[in-house]
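pls ignore typos typing on phone
beta-D-glucopyranose + seq
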Amino acid sequence: MVRRYKYPRFLSRPRGYVVLLLLSFLCTMYSMLHFIYYKPGRANALLYRYQAMQETVIDYVYYGGIRRRKTEKNMYIIYIYIYDIKGSASTPAQTIPYLPLNYNYSNFDVCPEKFPEMKGQIYVNMTEIPLSEVNTNFSHIIQHGGSWEPHDCIAAWNVAFLIPFRNRFEHLPILFRHLLPMLIKQRIKFSIFVINQEGDDLFNRALLLNIGFVEAMKIDHSFDCFIFHDVDHIPENDRNYYGCTGMPRLFAEQLDIHGYRLEYEDFFGGVNGVTTQQFKNVNGFSNQFWGWGGEDDDFYTRIRHYGYNVSRPPNNYGKYQSIVNHHTQERQYLGRFSRLKHSVERNFIDGLNSLHYKKPTIRHYPLFTNISLKLRPD
Ligand code: BGC
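k done
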């Protein structure tokens, strides 16, 4: 006897199907919102990737591979751009002559910004390794606590690297493995600070950076340049010079997960740097961005409001790869959009001049100084 499959009774009426459709729609919406809220970085990356692919297709169809790009002066320039849909923009040949190998400079000269060993594209290796291995490779070069300075010339900048941090232990060795050799090649005098937020409260990247700034200045008040560096951003080109300039600088101009494009014209996140004076002039970051997102947009408004423009690395040097594994992402800060509407009004009452925090624990490790503390929204 053939057994007949019995549908659930509610599906025998048309209304049953409507209910089923509605339920699956609600489930999809819920999963999407959950993903956007808990994995905002991934969600953004997917969105930018999608936009990049769309633009690429349009370019090929309408312009035959000729891309329009906005310059800093808000004018369009036309340039030939060969873009691969998988997401990596082809690197233009790096033909700019760097210093010849026999170039001479004395110990009393300020280090130049270009050295022959800065070859351009570097090999990015995302394999996880223990920190102890990187310590072994570098601790005979780097001073305990994470400082280094050149001895064959006078460093042009004394840079404090501030890395906002929570639970990304597997990322630190990957970053160090690429960053340290690059800085040494560039003859940058540097100190590395990891600013660690303890506990489970909402993450506040900008507040950590303000605290890092104040604490680093207590340790060495001669820092004249600060670079705020996300731990999961790995530089791809050693000609991306990690010194400051007359204008605040966005180092991470093109990220692989965003299709190697500038996310948007006002983007100022990931890896950026300012001189000590510039940071003081804009009153640092806002302290009020709890959760993922918005603090960098607010910082951009401060910078522009003070009259600065953003500078970016030349020749596509500002390319970075993002470490995507093990992303315990911070939750979205949904209130950021309304807060961003009042960035200008808040600028001089919210920042370095309104900073309060409990004394952090400071520990020196072979390759960095760790500034650790708990933060809690008021
Ligand atoms: C957020 C920024 C973030 C940017 C790029 C924006 O929506 O507000 O904080 O850097 O997306 O991912």
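The first strand starts at residue 66 and ends at 70. Residues 24 and 145 are 54 Å apart (CA to CA). more later
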